[in-house]
Amino acid sequence: MPHPIMFGDDDPGLRELRDIALSYPEAYEKVSHGRPGFFVSKMFAMYGGSTKETGIMRAVPHCVMVKVEEAERSALQQDERFFHPAYLGPSGWLGLDFSVAEVDWAEVRELVDASYRLVASRKLIKLLDEA
């Protein structure tokens, strides 16, 4: 049974995230688990997610989830806007909740860029750096 669609094209921040994510070499969007995911060979960003706090699952519908380097994770987790996403968190992902504070799109671009570089091939990273 497919996952239900859990977003609308007019959701807060989705258009901006699409503009950022789809600007990367060979990036494409597909719906994964009912949410927009941004991929090269692997997923590097996702709009919307959930977290499991004190054993209770909570939706975070307006956020970006990205893969982060281990060295960056503890510093980012000190910021109340970031959360440990259910399912993807154990694989090195964090979420940035768009509803906690005004979104800094330059920061989102940096997070997406770092995540892209963690999953993209050397060839794609070279294309990115040459652009």
Structurally, how many domains make up the residues?
1
Number of helices: 4
H-E string: HEEEEHEEHH
Counting helices, strands and paired strands, the structural category is alpha+beta
Strand content: 25-35%
Largest sheet: 6 strands, antiparallel
CATH topology: Aspartate Aminotransferase, domain 1
Q: Please, what is the average pLDDT?
A: 96
Please state the CA-atom Rg, rounded to the nearest Å: 14 Å
- Per the principal axes of the C-alpha atoms, what is the gross shape? globular
Q: What is the architecture at the second tier of CATH?
A: Alpha-Beta Complex
CATH domain class name: Alpha Beta
Strand order of the largest sheet: 1-2-3-4-6-5
Q: What fraction, in percent, of the residue positions are helical? A: 25-40%
Low-confidence stretches: none
Number of strands: 6
**N/C terminus separation:** 41 Å
